[in-house]
Specification:
Length: 781
């Protein structure tokens, strides 16, 4: 029987079972309740123990090196034919004109004169209303005095008389035009006079554009001589102008000196008539008072006293002499009158021309010792007997004549540069000739036999002091891997290789130098020499095939009895080490006669008279491996150097004291000059045809560009030495100069980035010569 206590236990158990049943029912069937809010973050537990190192992963891909790699330049991809494009601009200037002009008549009635002309273009009548579409259209007349040989354009009150300018244009149809002048004082067509007209169209994209000089695609001139005007004969020759300024010669680029219907230079006389007052007295101030010139250049006016002191007549002679002697960096001696007066020296070196006006057109009167313009000033060169004379009034011919007993003009000035010619016009380079007779190589020692001859009795060829050079061409290029002028060996063992420490040139040997470690004189007598030059220091380059050819050259220094060093030609020959014969390996890139048309004898104004005659010999010093010591951001290589010089980059800008007004002005005027052809785009002025394109990477070695100089207050910053390729070096010679001269920092940086993108510019080198060697090896092997 269940008692009360047992009944209570049974009830409790039943209740528990019921609750569990209800919970189960809610868990499986009831919907979920709402989620409660998150509780606060608990306290961080302690750090766990470090795990063990994982396995080493695979190697990553090779990263790009920070140092630029020297790779072949790709300039030719985009710039193929760039040289021909440059040349085409100049050729467009001097080729046959598409314009033509004829003066049909000149008719003067009273004080009015009418010139009638016909103008053609491309063979058809040129038709417009007033000729305003022509870039130049000028029409003149000028009177000639056949009794005096003078062209007088003004009367005693300086009012135009012989000078006539036609200006009012009217079209009359069919390519004919009348141009009218008023205030005419004489009947032109019945007088001794000339009529002259010129037109031009199509400005070319050259450096001179926008200045007083312009080049045009088409230029045409015409002239008529009336009466005795055709008897005029200039004492100058147009071919003299053409030597530097190109053919056909046009003053300012478009006023031609040779005009059909006129005597030579008569066309120039319509502006440079014989009684025209000169307007460029500042040119005369340049050498006489350099400090005062800086003030005039900055905009100051001449004083009345200076107007009188520096007055001159703007004749062809005066303006030509003054500009070439004082304003321009003339590339030869002004004493070389034969350049402009060839065949006519007997007409100019006469008593009539021995006047102070002639002397002052080339010579400063006083000059400046401080600024190095006094050497050829009259105050320096005239003997003391002239002291106290009033040179502006004294008649030079009263003493300097046959009757006066003192040297005549032709004795003082022969008309020939004494370094280049004998007094009677024989060129020393033609009369004294050095010849390389024989060359042989044994055990890397070069034996050179050479001789000299002279057709002048006054010259003893035994007096020549020769220098022999051997250059080692690298990788069958036109460049030297071992330049004779380099210093590459610590000859005295002092741990330094330099001129100051006494080390010799690598393969350049002055005959008779007993101390040179690689050169020796075997014999020297009666104008014949035999020397040896030892290349064995670099024999490994011959053994491994880097060098297979050498250039053998001889320069000769010759001084005459008057202690004048004479200009004679250096000579060279290419020698093939495998065949042991002289060879013609590369066709010449340039023609030295192109240099001599302006320089008369290459080297006399910037090196020495013994360094002319051969661009190949120039290249033996001007090698790609040397940076340009005087020209920033240039190589000493002949291409970079010559391009920069003829683009008028200034030497040693870091040595210019820009706080000195004279030095600053000289720099400013120098960099503003243009090559005398009025553009540097006439590549064939120096180059042979077809040799001025982007350089062939396989025929020219890489090179080095110099760093910038330190110059205050300019926009261009500091650039280091660069190692670079042939195109950057050569083509950049002009383009870098243009930007340096303009102080165009942004343009220069863009140019460098462009050249780097198409080639390489390796900078920040510790030992540029050694690293350049590595670049050459990398690019040429």
């Amino acid at each position: 029987m269940i008692n009360e206590k047992q009944s209570m236990y049974i009830a409790i158990i039943a209740l528990v079972i019921a609750v569990l049943a209800i919970g189960i029912t809610y868990t499986t069937e009831a919907p979920a309740g709402l989620t409660g809010p998150e509780g606060p973050q608990g306290v961080a537990g302690p750090d766990g123990a470090d795990g063990s190192d994982g396995a080493v992963g695979p190697a990553g891909a090779q990263g790009e090196s920070y140092t630029q790699v020297a790779e072949a330049e790709t300039c030719v991809v985009c710039h193929e034919g760039a040289g021909a494009d440059h040349q085409a601009d100049y050729d467009d200037y001097n080729d046959e004109s598409n314009l033509a002009i004829t003066i049909d008549s000149v008719s003067t009635t009273g004080t009015t004169s009418v010139m009638t002309v016909t103008i053609m273009k491309d063979g058809a009548a040129y038709v417009e209303d007033d000729l305003s579409d022509l870039d130049q259209a000028r029409f003149y007349a000028m009177a000639y005095d056949s009794a005096t040989g003078m062209w007088d354009g003004r009367d005693e009150d300086y009012v135009p008389s012989g000078y006539v300018r036609y200006s009012t244009v009217a079209a009359i149809g069919g390519g004919q035009y009348t141009i009218t002048a008023s205030g005419v004082t004489y009947d032109i067509e019945t007088s001794d006079a000339i009529a002259y007209a010129y037109i031009a169209q199509g400005p070319l994209d050259v450096e001179a554009g926008g200045s007083h000089v312009h080049l045009y695609a088409d230029v045409a001139s015409a002239g008529i001589s009336y009466g005795a005007a055709d008897e005029y004969e200039s004492v100058a020759v147009v071919s003299g102008c053409e030597k530097c300024h190109g053919e056909p010669y046009g003053k300012h680029g478009y006023r031609q000196a040779e005009v059909e219907g006129l005597s030579d230079f008569a066309s120039c006389k319509v502006c440079h008539y014989d009684d025209r007052k000169g307007g460029h007295q500042d040119w005369l101030v340049i050498p006489n008072d350099p400090v005062r010139y800086t003030e005039l250049h900055a905009g100051d006016d001449l004083t009345e006293e200076e107007e009188i002191q520096y007055s001159y007549m703007a004749t062809v002679m005066q303006d030509t002499h003054i500009t070439h002697a004082m304003e321009f960096p003339y590339p030869q001696s002004m004493s070389n009158c034969v350049t402009c007066h060839e065949g006519k020296l007997d007409m100019i070196l006469t008593d009539d021309y021995f006047t102070i006006e002639t002397c002052k057109s080339c010579h400063a009167v006083t000059g400046s010792e401080e600024y190095d313009t006094a050497e050829y000033a009259l105050a320096t060169v005239l003997p003391a007997v002239h002291d106290g004379m009033n040179l502006d009034t004294v008649n030079c011919a009263s003493c300097h004549s046959a009757a006066g007993g003192f040297p005549v003009f032709s004795e003082i000035h022969s008309g020939y540069d004494k370094q280049v010619y004998t007094a009677d016009g024989v060129k020393y380079a033609d009369a004294v000739v050095i010849t390389i007779d024989e060359t042989s190589v044994s055990d890397d020692v070069v034996t050179v036999k050479f001789s000299a001859t002279s057709s002048l009795a006054a010259i003893d060829v035994a007096d020549i002091e020769p220098t022999v050079m051997v250059g080692m061409y690298g990788w069958d290029t036109k460049d030297y891997i071992i330049g004779p002028h380099e210093r590459l060996v610590d000859d005295n063992g002092d741990g330094e290789i330099s001129r100051s420490s006494g080390d010799d040139r690598a393969l350049e040997y002055g005959v008779g130098d007993d101390d040179h470690p690689r050169g020796a004189t075997v014999s020297a007598a009666d104008g014949s020499w035999e020397v040896t030059v030892d290349m064995s220091t670099w024999g490994n380059l011959i053994d491994d095939g880097t060098v297979s050819r050498i250039e053998v050259a001889v320069m000769g220094e010759l001084v005459d009895a008057d202690d004048v060093e004479l200009a004679i030609n250096a000579v060279s020959k290419t020698y093939d080490l495998a065949t042991a014969e002289f060879v013609d390996y590369y066709d010449p890139i340039t023609d030295v006669e192109g240099c001599n048309t302006c320089h008369e004898a290459l080297g006399i104004t910037f090196h020495g008279p013994d360094r002319g005659g051969s661009i190949v010999v120039c290249r033996m010093c001007h090698i790609t491996k040397s940076r340009g010591s005087h020209l920033e951001l240039q190589s000493r290589s002949i291409d970079s150097y010559v391009h920069a010089i003829h683009s008028f980059q200034a030497y040693d800008i870091g040595d210019v004291d820009f706080t000195d007004a004279v030095e600053a002005t000289r720099y400013e005027t120098h960099v503003a000059h243009t090559m005398p052809l009025f553009t540097i785009k006439d590549c064939e002025a120096c180059h042979n045809e077809g040799t001025y394109e982007v350089p062939d990477q396989s025929k020219s070695l890489p090179g080095a560009l110099s760093a910038t100089d330190s110059v205050d207050d300019r926009d261009i910053g500091d650039y280091p030495i660069y190692l670079t390729g042939p195109a950057t070096r050569a083509c950049g010679g002009c383009h870098r100069t243009d930007l340096i001269n303009a102080d165009d920092a942004g343009g220069l940086e863009i140019l460098f980035q462009h050249m780097k993108a198409g080639g390489y510019l390796i900078a920040e080198v510790d030992d540029y010569a050694a690293e350049l060697g590595t670049v050459i090896d990398d690019t040429m092997y």
